[in-house]
Amino acid sequence: QVQLVESGGGLVQPGGSLRLSCAASGSISMIYAMGWYRQAPGKRRELVARISTGDSLNYADSVKGRFTISRENAKNTVYLQMNSVKAEDTAVYYCNMVVGSTYFNYWGPGTQVTVSS
What we know:
single chain, mainly beta, 117 residues, globular
């Protein structure tokens, strides 16, 4: 079993910055991909950024140039640096990791990010 714990969410003003962290613990053999998704009220969960084996990166068009995903393998941790945030970035942000030989998807409980003045 793998547990994911997110941290770093909160209230930030438009144009400001925030850094999210997600650490995995438990029975971890191999992490194939790490990512961040978000879900705003009344909307579907969407991919924000993802980093896969070989450091392949994917970003949603809406965050390109503003958000950066990175990882620290030794700590089984993934980060999301959010710069120049906008009101439309307000959402619950979920950490996702694809782990093990079964490529099982694990999700964190989510952390709220609110962009408001």
